[in-house]
Please model this.
Amino acid sequence: MSTSCTHLDGIHDVTPSAAGCEECLKTGSPWVHLRICRTCGHVGCCDSSPNKHATKHYHATSHPIIEGYDPPEGWGWCYVDEFFFDLTDRKTPHPGPIPRFVP
Model:
């Protein structure tokens, strides 16, 4: 894991693409936690979720920065530099309630 990140200047204020994981909502799949892309606002599920849509979005787009989004957790992650960082002062607000999936 890196001790710094060269992509922090690419963090944007974004509008969430969906109220939950965009792809899971379309297919009815469950998720564990959500991540939001800080390049474009895509909302995807975390790597503990069955479909890992946030990481799939990174591989498809090369957008490097995500934020812990469910609930807003105040941290960011750079896939390229494998670097965690503080987003406490720049959390993306939720536009409304997030649907929950109960196992």
